């Protein structure tokens, strides 16, 4: 791969952002969301790492009709109510960028890292943040419905999009990209997904997208990988429930699934450029 024509956005890697998500079997109530907010207030280490706290309010509008005289059109009226809808935790750099962001919502919580180094270090930091919140949710009787891992990789295409550049960046015999796209001289998009099973036979959904795009007059190749393991239902004989103690191993499994795609999609030159031959990558 010609490094003067194709450049990973992260220098030694191509990862723009990585996100870990924990989904609940049912939306958290306002009381339960407040209890998770208290976790943040009680953990000085999390506060030091994510010092900016942004509570979110929900607004609900209920429509009704006022009573009116017979044969007189009823007049609609709206009742507005507010509630606590979750919160965000952020870490800012001096340039205003946000390398770490944690979002807590009724349906899920997520940890986003835009300052990716290597998998082991980023996963460890993410688990240090997520574990106290998940512990509190589980202690309150909340069950985990899914664990997700998402990556966005990107390469700058200094000479623009072309079949030659595509052939340098990707393997032409890869099963992750439709073969005819290697003949396209303009932008293109490829998206597909499939189900698999993790080590405990839990159902796993994998989605991969590849885009040749232009952003602010710069051409990019972007690879999106989204991988989720679902908790088995209690009456599903083939399923396994996800416990807090399972999350670390599930994340390693999802990371390996993403690496299989990257290793099978990118050319040898591209893999060397992003250091994807090592175990901790």
Give your account of this protein's structure.
This protein is α+β, with helices and mostly antiparallel strands. The chain folds into two domains: 143 residues, no CATH class; 93 residues. Helix content is 26%, strand content 37%. It has six helices and ten strands, in the order ββααββββαβαβββαα. Strands 1, 2, 3, 4, 5, 6, 7, 8, 9 and 10 form a ten-stranded antiparallel β-sheet that branches. A hairpin with a 5-residue loop joins strand 8 and strand 9. Helix 1 crosses helix 3. It is globular, with a radius of gyration of 23 Å. 26% of the residues are buried.
What does this entry show, briefly?
The protein has 281 residues and is an alpha+beta fold. Strands 1, 2, 3, 4, 5, 6, 7, 8, 9 and 10 form a 10-stranded antiparallel beta sheet that branches.
Main structural class: alpha+beta
The major β-sheet equals: 10 strands, antiparallel
Task: Tell me the Rg in angstroms.
Answer: 23 Å
The shape, in one word, is globular
Number of domain units: 2
Strand content: 35-45%
How far is the N terminus from the C terminus?
Answer: 19 Å
Number of contiguous helices? 6
Order of helices and strands: EEHHEEEEHEHEEEHH
Poorly predicted tracts of residues: none
Work out the number of β strands. 10
Q: Which range best describes the helical content: under 10%, 10-25%, 25-40%, 40-55%, 55-70% or over 70%?
A: 25-40%
Mean pLDDT: 89
